[in-house]
Amino acid sequence: MSVEKREFKTEIKQLLDLMIHSLYSHKEVFLRELVSNASDAIDRARYESLTDAGIHEDDTEWMIRISPDKEKKTLTISDNGIGMTKDEAIEALGTIARSGTMEFLKSLQGKDIKDNPELIGQFGVGFYSSFMVADKVAIITRKGGHDKESGCRWESTGDGSYTIEDCAREGRGTDVILHLKEDMRDFLDEWQIRTIVKKYSDYVQYPIVMDISREETPKGVDGKEIEGAGTITKTTEETLNSMKAIWARPKGEITDEEYEEFYKHISHDFEKPL
């Protein structure tokens, strides 16, 4: 499999330069954007599967998975949504017309962008916010209904170019793998991830899951802890978002901030409601 190297368009290079040089103080928004992109990809897969059942590939348990790896210093956001072909990945990730980046760059003029994290999502350049926290980003994707060998791997260090090559992917969907910068590795912390998901993505209608490991003492058949047995590491999959309709909760429990975040989620607006 040959690796193809391509240059970003000029405007994308300008955008990456802005992101890499930490113009946003709210760096946590990168996770909000990647989860939002994953949710949109699942929405599209569900919609297109109405007329093309092959997209399902016997997998209708829609979910978004967050996988921190402290040894490799990577954070991976995966979905089983529609995925992309190689041509679609080139168009979506390296071409100005699909991202609204020119409007985004213009919007930064005369603004204190550190206080405007909403601008990232508003102009559809959310994926590039990954470079605020990562010094290398890789994407492995395959479109639903296509052959398992028809996937592709996209990779960039934000230096103005990227590589893309063919690869295999067992299931449909997309993995976004962030190789975190040294000073951004607190985003691998379980409680940091939980907090960000709860703050920005609690109303996403698909489960956002993560494997959680805990040390515990083995128990006997009677349910009691076995003395002197030491501890074992038990890993379970947990869902981080509530997926609970806001209208199904008691009115007195819902804060103004929750109402605002719910509005942003259903409207795809990044400003507060009027």
Question: Would you mind describing this structure in some detail?
Answer:
With 274 residues, the chain is an alpha+beta fold. It has helices spanning 10-20, 29-48, 86-94, 101-107, 118-122, 190-200, 256-267, and strands at residues 3-7, 64-69, 74-79, 134-142, 151-156, 161-167, 173-180, 208-216, 232-239. The chain has a 9-stranded mixed sheet, with helices on one face.
Q: Any key phrases for this structure?
A:
globular; alpha+beta; 9 strands; 274 residues; 9-stranded mixed β-sheet; 7 helices; Heat Shock Protein 90
CATH superfamily: Histidine kinase-like ATPase, C-terminal domain
Q: Please indicate the percent range of residues in DSSP E strands (runs of 2 or more).
A: 15-25%
Structural shape: globular
Per DSSP, the total helix count is: 7
Task: Note poorly predicted spans.
Answer: none
Q: What order do the helices and strands come in, and which of them pair?
A:
Layout: E1 3-7, H1 10-20, H2 29-48, E2 64-69, E3 74-79, H3 86-94, H4 101-107, H5 118-122, E4 134-142, E5 151-156, E6 161-167, E7 173-180, H6 190-200, E8 208-216, E9 232-239, H7 256-267
Parallel strand pairs: 2-8
Antiparallel strand pairs: 1-6, 2-3, 3-7, 4-5, 4-7, 5-6, 8-9
In summary, what is this structure?
The chain is 27% helix and 23% strand. It is an alpha+beta fold.
